[in-house]
Design brief:
Length: 459
């Protein structure tokens, strides 16, 4: 289904759209306040951009350096070309360790690989331990945001979900009670787990260690208690040196939630005595994206979610309307690289206002890349007949000033004279949610000429 059709489903609940918009704008506002407190913020962004660009140009070198150092530390490194191979490796490790119960902290990569249903089909219990992720897991929904996975659910919906699945008492959406109950429920799962799965925010080539950032400490609870820790990372998560971490840790939390630093930035370097640590390095289409010069910078992304929080379309259409693992502006660049036809409407789900590029901590030219995808999609995928024809006609009109003038006159007259029911009829998608302004009597050109003539007279 197209983005606009899915968005119209979300838009049916106006109240929800309103608080979704406000909640994300609140986070964007917190981000602004927080970054303005950092002297040299722009310099930090440039540094982040530069380190990532350097890393991508030397990806093979740093990945191999990481593997060698991780092996030295006692971490077993695995390579997966795609999602299927990644899932197979995870299952194999779990089977080898006779693990039936797994606790998993937030990892967009495992979402991308659809790991949970894959493991569940083999009788393995997978519990998402990030609170937002657990909420959407109970609701049998995918996350709608990469940092705030359940941002589309209000506390009353969570109250009902918990009553149904965790047997809690009705509490009128009391957040304190609900988080307390979630804590009790999750602690039990941590204690019972045979293995812990985590994502990776940054993997350091120089040391062979990696960092996982969470605000709830759930990755640490899982990894410290379970005898086996499996960490899953995309190839682009590598950074060259330990000293580069400071740049990204400062950029990440401020851009994501406006915090100076994520509550837990945990460094994992080697397994504890008697325990095992595995890391799976996954490509799954990233090399192809790297080979597209116009889009390779999308691999700089550190998954802070800032572009989503600021995007006027995302805030009003909800993450599920993108029907992709990574929604919002950056997802609209990454997804067409995976399936151009399926995701052909996503790059058009943008006003191209450039706000996403303005807030991106690693300076990805997001709106430029969205515009580039539009050009490719228009050429390579079938477009609706009406859209294609109207664009052709518009192109002809814009190419000839005399025609533009004539059409402008008719349009201004129509907007002033015709009934609204006709102007906002079905073919005018724009009129679905808004009124067009009353057409002025004269064109800008006429107004400007008159103004200039009057100026001359005064002089
Ligand atoms: S593209 Fe930039 S702003 Fe968007 S999630 Fe990635 S790093 Fe954050």
């Amino acid at each position: 289904m197209s983005h606009s059709k899915l968005a119209s489903i979300f838009n049916k609940d106006e109240k929800k759209v309103d608080w979704h918009d406000k909640a994300l704008w609140f986070v964007r506002h917190k981000r602004d306040k927080s970054v303005h407190e950092v002297k040299g913020w722009e310099e930090l962004r440039n540094l982040g951009h530069g380190i990532k660009a350097h890393m991508l140009s030397n990806l093979d070198v740093y990945l191999q350096e990481f593997e060698a150092n991780a092996n030295k530390n006692g971490i077993e490194v695995h390579w997966a070309a795609d999602a299927e191979e990644h899932n197979q490796i995870v299952l194999k490790i779990l089977k080898e360790n006779n693990a039936k119960k797994v606790v998993k902290s937030k990892s967009m990569l495992t979402e991308e690989c659809h790991l949970n249903p894959y493991l569940e089909a083999d009788g393995i219990e997978v519990i998402d331990t990030d609170l937002g992720e657990r909420i959407v897991q109970l609701a049998k929904e995918p996350p709608s945001h990469i940092v705030l996975p359940a941002i589309h659910k209000n506390r009353h919906e969570v109250d009902e979900l918990f009553q149904e699945h965790l047997g809690t008492k009705p509490c009128d959406g009391d957040p304190q009670y609900l988080t307390g109950e979630a804590r009790k429920h999750l602690r039990q799962k941590f204690i019972e787990a045979d293995a812990a799965l985590t994502g990776v925010n940054f993997a350091i080539a120089e040391t062979g260690g990696f960092v996982v950032c969470t605000n709830e400490g759930n990755a640490d609870m899982g990894a410290h208690l379970a005898p086996v820790h499996i960490a899953c990372m995309g190839v682009e998560k590598i950074i060259p040196r330990q000293e580069h971490l400071g740049v990204f840790l400062r950029l990440l939390a401020r851009s994501a939630t406006g915090q100076p630093i994520t509550t837990y930035s945990s460094h994992f370097k080697k397994p504890a005595d008697g325990k095992k640590m595995h890391i799976i390095i996954v490509d799954n289409g990233r090399s192809e994206q790297l080979a597209r010069p116009d889009f390779r910078a999308s691999l700089h992304c550190i998954r802070c979610g800032a572009c989503m929080n600021t995007c006027p379309i995302y805030r009003r259409s909800g993450g599920h309307s993108y029907d992709a693992t990574i929604p919002g502006p950056i997802g609209s660049i990454l997804s067409p690289g995976k399936d151009l036809k399926k995701y052909s409407t996503l790059p058009f789900a943008s006003t191209l206002c450039g706000s996403c590029s303005d807030v991106c901590p690693v300076k990805i030219d997001i709106h430029t890349q969205l515009y580039k995808w539009r050009q490719i999609i228009t050429k390579e995928t079938p477009q609706p007949f009406i859209k294609k024809k109207s664009m052709e006609i518009m192109g002809q009109v814009f190419a000839k000033p005399s025609q533009f003038e004539k059409v402008g006159k008719i349009a201004r007259w129509s907007l002033r004279t015709l009934p609204k029911s006709l102007i906002n009829s079905k073919p005018n998608a724009w009129g679905k949610a808004r009124d067009l302004p009353l057409g002025p009597k004269e064109s800008f050109d006429d107004w400007y000429k008159k103004r200039e003539a009057n100026k001359d007279k005064k002089d």
